[in-house]
TrEMBL record:
The keyword S-adenosyl-L-methionine does not apply. GO terms for biological process: cell division; mitotic cell cycle phase transition. Gene3D superfamilies: Cyclin-like. Keywords: Cell cycle, Cell division, Cyclin. GO terms for molecular function: cyclin-dependent protein serine/threonine kinase regulator activity. Residues 61-145 form the Cyclin-like domain. The lineage of its organism: Eukaryota, Metazoa, Ecdysozoa, Arthropoda, Hexapoda. Residues 154-281 form the Cyclin C-terminal domain. Belongs to the cyclin family. This is Cyclin, C-terminal domain,Cyclin-like,Cyclin, N-terminal.
Amino acid sequence: MDLLCCESTSKSVAQKDPTLLHDDRVFNTMLQSEKRCLPAADYLTTVQSDLTPNLRKIVVDWMWEVCEEQKCQEDIFPLAVNYLDRFLSKNPIQKNHLQLLGTTCLLVSSKLRECESLTVDLLILYTDNTVSSEDLLMWELLLLSILKWDVSALTAHDFLWYILKRLNLDTVKPFVDIVVKHCGTFIGMCVRDYKFCSYLPSVIAGASIAAALNGLEYAAIHKYDLFTKLHVITGAKKETLKACQEQIEAIVESHKRQRKEQMDFALYEEKPVYEKTVESIDPKCWI
């Protein structure tokens, strides 16, 4: 007897609830709650003595690569980094424990939001077996203890559609999909950079939207006073939103220069460059 296999390997992801997206009470509660889980902006100088921004970047980049290879949901990575930054804001550690902490943060964030969480064995494999399952489970308990079991932090991805709805940009489906893709790239860049720790998730989401629309020349074409609208929606100062957007665009320009230098060097050496960069996540992205 012939069997017809109709199984799918795609993950089941909950759709955005339009009732919640349009409810101002939900959005206002999110704006109030986001401050609760904000890490200290200067913890690498005030709390940590053995860590540097570069060491943080190495581990966070590794966490991003794990999430990319495992095709995790987009909010798993920023949530894990939020755990890492909040832990480091309260508890000093040695640099040889930093990857173990990052691995633990990935484990907890995937348990909370991923429909199929990353397994302990898989994460140990990604560390080249430098940590044990006992270490990972012990640090999971330590992480939850330091965070006081407050793991339901909000990320910039959580605010994205709420802000787009209130900007009335969600009506044109193809356009808003492009904006969301660009914003996802920018949010990932912000999460990986230590200097964005001081910004609220809603500010990063709003600034990412502004950077995406600026790159697509939307505001200039439509004479759109974007920062005034973002200020009204999020309550953030226009100067703060503008500063965050400018820092995002500065990172974009830096990556563009690095990519050009790599391509020029590859042409000079007559060897192709296969290194994955931040802007190569989305080939249609204007960066």
